[in-house]
Amino acid sequence: MKKNITFLLLTLIFYLVLSSCKNTNDNGKLKIGLMPAVDTAPFFYAQEQGLFTKAGIDVELTIFTDAGNRQTALQTNSIDGAMTDMVALISNVAAGFPIKGTLSTNGSFPLLINPNFDYQTNPKIGMMEVSVSNYLVSEYMKDQGYSKVFINAIPMRLEAVAAGHIDMGLFPEPLASIGQMKGLIKKSYPGIPKESLDILVFTNQSLKDKKSSIKVFHSVYAQAVLALQENPNLAREVLIRSIPNLPPTVKDSIELPIYTNPTVPSSEFTKKIMTWTAEISKHKIELTDKDLFDTSFIK
User: Fold this and answer.
1) What span, in angstroms and rounded, lies between the C-alpha atoms of 173 and 159?
2) What is the pTM of this model?
3) Residue 262: beta bridge partners?
């Protein structure tokens, strides 16, 4: 009897000590900020299929239509992580904002062209200044002359192309397909860039406090990607259901990326984007892969 009581006491002490070693801030809940882009398909597919719940985590996905609001949500710790891009990641870390990239997401960025453009003059192309849109246009038009027109707000950029105030503009899918549906010409550049410019980031605080949940999150993402690789039409369907105000008529026009297994950009590609970002922002930037990425969640 005494031995049984002693065993029970020791067992209770063991579990008390074990539970005290766990990070009490990791409650299994994650808040992720997304943008209305094709990158979101694996996240929404995982949510619809209940994969996050089955894996034991509670994930709240929020679409931000304004990058500034998404940035504010990250800075105020209203969300744990968010979809962004390499230019923004490099700029933010260089400025001292404590975030790290953990996973490349896959986007698609065609040019939309006004149908009245005659191709006889150098086009005026709308983009955001310190952004992937500027970088991609420089890559797309590497051997051609063009004029940059900085229009940060995507709806205003789209309106400018449609009205003929500018000749072209760069837009993410599926918004590019909406523009195509309205009569604009969509032009894609397969193979540019060679690696994804889009990336999922988490605040350093969340990486510290919610490490276990974030690890599970990445594992579930990998499952969702596998399903979309096997049946890309699942991505189209989940995008139509999940992105607000996306008309079902554009489903078959959406240019899907190849959803890749979890990874982060290579050192070579990262250095290339960092050099470009430093030149365009006129700031000296010297960061290492370790400063920018936490790869522990995809190993």
Assistant:
1) 16
2) 0.89
3) none
Q: Angle, to 10 degrees, between the axis of helix 41-48 and the axis of helix 211-230?
A: 100
Give the chain's domains with CATH numbers: 30-107+196-292 (3.40.190.10), 111-187 (3.40.190.10)
SS3 58: strand
Model confidence at 3, pLDDT cuts 50, 70, 90, reads: very low
173 contacts 181 by C-beta, under 8 angstroms: no
DSSP string, 159-193: HHHHHTSSSEEE--TTHHHHHHHTTPEEE--TT-S
Please check the confidence at residue 8 and state whether its pLDDT lies above 80. Answer: no
Range 244-271 average pLDDT: 97
Q: Which two tokens stand for residue 215?
A: 């690890």
Helix (H) or strand (E) holding 52: helix 51-54
| 194: Cβ contacts below 8 Å, ≥ 6 apart | 269
